[in-house]
Design brief:
Shape: globular
Strand content: 15-25%
Radius of gyration: 21 Å
Structural class: alpha/beta
Strand order of the largest sheet: 3-4-6-5-7-8-9-10
Order of helices and strands: HEEEEEHHEHEHEHHHEHEHHH
Helix content: 25-40%
Length: 364
Amino acid sequence: MASALFIFPIDLISMGAFGRILERAGFLPGDISYQFYAFDGKMFRIRNLLSFSVSDDDFRGWLVPVPSKKDQQIAVAALFSERTLPDACIVFCGGNAGDLGHRLHTLQKFRALFSQSALISSGYHWEHTYYFDFITFDYRGFGLSHGSPSEKNAYQDLRLCIRSYLEHRYQYTLSNNTAPKIFLYGHSLGASVALDLAADKKSPLFASILGLILDGAPASIFRALDSKTWAAPSTLLSPLDPFPNFKKIPRIQCPVWFCHGLRDPICPITNGLRLHDAAPKHLRSFEPAFWSENASHGDLIDAIDFASRFRRFLYAVLGPIRPPSTFSYMMPATADDAHHNKYSCISKEEEEDLHHDNNNLRSW
């Protein structure tokens, strides 16, 4: 009996160490693919070293110290709206591989979805649209971010990214409740990071989360690998399963949009379906889930109809009429800017489709 009592805590310690090894094994930092240069006193310009992505002068980057870790920092990149008064910020949480050099390519695609030509070709009124900032960041151990990646660190890195963005852009503090609203877009493992914040009611940032987009999200790490047999990882190692998203999704209190590729070999569609069914029904009703027949794991943004569905979700949450600004210290730069605050940003064809959703806006 004594030997059993002695072995039991040792086993718990071993399981904990094994769980941390499994958790960190999911992160795959590679070579740094970007540079920060030309510091202007607040932010850097960013040079992308990847051949497939053209450097963009509009990008800005900065380094955020990690509290209580003197030798650690995370790198943040932003693509600011052309307006001084963006309606919301879309925060992109990337997967378990690649760094800001790859993320910049995604932000460029996001910006293109809301370009004048894209909106006009889709039937929108350009002068009546919403404006967004786009930001992303490197997990610790990736790119110029120092430290070691882990599940806990990834959650903290997202919070540090958003806080630093709000401080840079809006002089935001915890006592200032006029911060802009945030949409969290999580891809693959990044969906786990985004979901954790959206479900964390204790976070000071919780009230700022306006919507959640889950792209190729795993129900958990082991469930993404699940072989659907009695020996499945999620069955044998359930207590050690990192990123247990299926347990967190019922706790969210913001609208959520699910998108997943039916040909996804890394995180099968069963994961997206499980999360979708576990999410509060009224929060997933703003825009139906997008299950793309032609998409795989990392190419959903290029799928047919993704752009229109993505915009519909954002506009359904924000509402058809652009709300007046609540930022007393951020006045419209021109009378034209002020004029934009009054008009619908949706196309005539989509106004009727969204009408029934508007009755439920803010009910959450």
